[in-house]
Amino acid sequence: MASSHTESQRSDESQYSPTSDPVRWRILWVLLITIFMTLVSVSIVNVALPSIRVGLNASEADLQWVLSGFALTFGVILVAAGRAGDIMGRGGLFLIGVAIFTVASVAAGLAPNAEWLNAARFAQGIGSGLLNPQGLGMIQHYFRGDARGRAFGYFGTTVGFSVAIGPVLGGLLIELGGPELGWRLTFLVNVPIGVLAIILGLMWFPRPLIVRLPRTGSGLRSLDPVGAALLGLAVLAMLFPFVESGGGAIVWLLLPAGMLLVWLWVLWERRYVRLGLSPMVDLKIFSTRSYTNGITIMALYFMGVTSVWVLVALYVQEGDGKTALQSATFGIPAALLSAYAAHWAGSRVATLGRKMVVVGLLIALFGLALSVGVVMLFEAGHISIWWLMGSLSFVGIAQGIVISPNQTLTLADVPLDYAGSSGAIMQTGQRIGTAVGIAVITAAVFATLAVSSWGMAMIVGFVLIALVVVLALVVALRDLAQRRQPAPAHARQT
Fold first, then answer.
1. Which CATH number is correct for 282-485, 1.20.1250.20, 3.40.50.1380, 3.30.1780.10, 2.60.40.1730?
2. CA 200 – CA 98 distance, rounded (Å)
3. The whole model's pTM is what?
């Protein structure tokens, strides 16, 4: 049953795949507009938290959930949403996700209290979780070879630019609107972007991309609801202890429970295949070395480098008394260089391959070492703290050279029938890596701060980040060595 469904689905895909550049590049523009919206929304919220505290009289727990609620719902539904798009049509679920995110942004901007705001943030996470895997799946489907590298390069450029402009835009909106209206504008700014993305999607997406129902006989079972529930609960159990810092020691019991749920999910997926059904995730993809190495590199990279920007924001504001808007400017050169590097790397990944990722990780380590030196010299009174903008620029370059090429290389040998769910697994690894890294590294920084200075705490944080990046470098070097060996017989071309 599974094979016949897959063959018919492939024929649908090949029948409706656009062959002319204008169609696929229009699709990419819709994806980039939406990615810009979701990432700007994340970075703006970080800047808006103090204003939200004043405007809604929110508690520390409320503010924690403004961030955590989005992360949880986003991570929990990613893989299930990716598989649903593989089966039912990626474009339709993408537009539904954009609509949910946009409506939730309106609800957040009009929130009368913290509870309402956090409910809206949960809904934003659902919308973002629906649309993100569809975007990766569509890039996989509509782009091949060098064009796929360029597409992911534009994707990385959009990420870098949105990260750069988000905090600055947030600071300007808060100053423009004042303590009551300013933070609301940081949510409402998503609305025109979301509406534009929906209109362009309806105009430019091919109709079979928007709606493709499961074929007769597959129905709900083709979505593997039990597998989706098991994996969703597993991700929730593993993420919750790290995003809910005030839950007490008992919350950490969820970690072994999450691992048990992963084991049960694997058993269920194997049983599903034996029954002749199409599983939520084709577990054979984990035997593809380029895929497993790629998702490991991505998880480790996000576990380390994401914390850089959290620590810098804390250091320059609490350690040196800078404003939120001033602290936002520290990341602008890095983000803009990341955007340029992603575009540059995207057009060369087909020829340079994993070597580019290895070089990017080495540049990240160089940037971290420079940043340690800047902190030491600043604490000794020899230089200004603004020198951090220069050292962190190398981290930005590394981000552009690592993330987009690694996405291209990781998904290169994944079957198109599982492009959405496979990409979603990679994103789930990023979310878990980010949550674990921020929780552990910031905890180490604050523990150091309790007995020493901000300077020493930052050095400890940067060193821990560097150690995680070294682990990612080891995996990248192993992958580079394996790519020089003959390809395994089960490797599939897309």
1. 1.20.1250.20
2. 12
3. 0.80
